[in-house]
Amino acid sequence: FAIGKATERVDAFRKAKNKAIHYLHYIERYEDHTIFHDISLRYKRTHIKMKKQPRGYGLRCHRAIITICRLIGIKDMYAKVSGSVNMLNLTRGLFHGLSRQ
């Protein structure tokens, strides 16, 4: 993910998309549907607890985490967000946790 700043929304979106292409990451998945193990992390004031779930459980988490997990290919996971729910910190924390699993 990346951030683009501009006066017009369309220009900011284009800048963010072009910057994000340079920061692509591959996230490993357990049996191609969930995370490898339970993860608990803190990013600034955002606390995220992610739990591995069996096949068919679904995504039961914050709406931003659901969107990101669908794009990654994670289908079954439980996540609880406490503290700050700032979208930028939530996204950075999620990627930080998933990259260290």
From TrEMBL:
Keyword set includes Ribonucleoprotein: yes
Q: Which UniProt keywords apply?
A: Ribonucleoprotein, Ribosomal protein
Q: Which GO terms describe its molecular function?
A: RNA binding; structural constituent of ribosome
Top-level taxonomic group: Eukaryota
> In the UniProt record, does the keyword Ribonucleoprotein occur?
yes
Give one GO biological process term.
translation
Q: Small ribosomal subunit protein uS5 C-terminal domain: which residues?
A: 42-101
Q: Which Pfam families match?
A: Ribosomal_S5_C
Gene Ontology CC annotation, any one: small ribosomal subunit
Gene3D superfamilies per the record? 3.30.230.10
State the similarity comment. Answer: Belongs to the universal ribosomal protein uS5 family.
User: What's the protein here called?
Assistant: Small ribosomal subunit protein uS5 C-terminal domain-containing protein
